[in-house]
Task: structure prediction
Amino acid sequence: MAKHEHFNMKNREQFFKKCAQLGVSIPYSENMEVYHNSVKIGHVEAPNALAVLPMEGCDSNADGSPSDLVRRRYERFFLGGAGLIWWEANAVVEEGKANELQMMLNKQNKGAFSDLISNLKTVTVKKYNHTPVSILQLTHSGRYSRPRGDRGIPIIAQHDPILDKRMGIDSDYPLCTDEYLKDLVGSYVESALLAQEVGFDGVDVKACHRYLLSELLASHTRGGEYGGTFENRVRLLLEIIRSIKTACGEHFIVACRFNIFDAHPYPYGFGCAKDDMWVFDEEEPIKLVEALVESGVSLLSNSAGNPYYIYPQVTRPFDLSSEGIPVPDEHPLESIERLFSFTELIQRHSKGIPVVGNGYTWLRQFIAPVGSANLQKGACAFVGLGRSSFAYPDAPREILQKGGLDPKKCCVSCSKCTQIMRDHGRTGCVIRDNKVYAPLYMEARQKAEKRRSE
Result:
């Protein structure tokens, strides 16, 4: 591991030199044609190989319907030119919301979602003569549930002495029951059917970042039907996927964004060696991919780590992190190399199912050539843009039309968007979308400071 550094590369020669100094292998190609290729997802076709990853704003209306900020965000994403829009986390049950303004599609507000999607498709067809594929992420926040107010109401699958202590969870705090987990299948199916009705092309069954289904993947210490053995730990995820496929039919996409590597000690982490949490053990992640494909998944996106814990660089390499997070013991390019290697592994074992790559944002203007090289070598089927999409929503269009990105418009990986979420505010890019989000950032910071002083 090398010393952490802020981004400081102005041209490709400096980029190549830094990679050589670190001994990291990051591919690079200035041929942008590969981005124009359409990508088949089940029975649907995305018009290009660029994707917006799920970026939660924590800013829906109180009933879960799209607010003005939500409508603004997705209009910017749709008009930005990506071939795939992976919509943000949508709670399948009220108690599983991560915040009280989390998106939540239901029977009462489905009209608002239908109108939004219809309008977005209209403006996108007018501009590009096509529409992106839309996937709605379905979630249950598990131990990070905070459906109302500023205090969490955790729903945990297993006790974890590290995370429990950090969250103030006592050893006698009850685990969610097998019966509760079984009942969730119906909630996921209902949400998927509503998503299909209002115009989404598919749904993602979210199993990453230590939310409930992700924690189940690592629930080695849990008893019953959903813990212990690998077959038990993946049971609920696969039951949900199969049930959605049955209910929604073959033409509706079922995707999965899942953790491949938790960077968390055994027996509380997934994809980690038993004797070293920083050593990746590929056996179970590969078995999971094979099971997901067999169960009918037609789109995959792998992630890693736990953004709520002290190693967020495993998920999203950064220049600056949010409050209370230590400087990591590795260079961001090392973090990116690890994320790229995970995606390439999953793509190799996906039997042709497209995989969305991640980990690009810190690269700024080098996103385009690095992503192009990954596409050309078959290491992923889409280049996915996460935090970058908050800062630079028209990045896909500029890659496709101009062959590159403007460094002055790129995300600077300052983690202020993350800080707003941690402060229980409504989030976006404080730097590049300053007029809208700088006031919201300050508002959330002040409220967080007040809570700490009370």
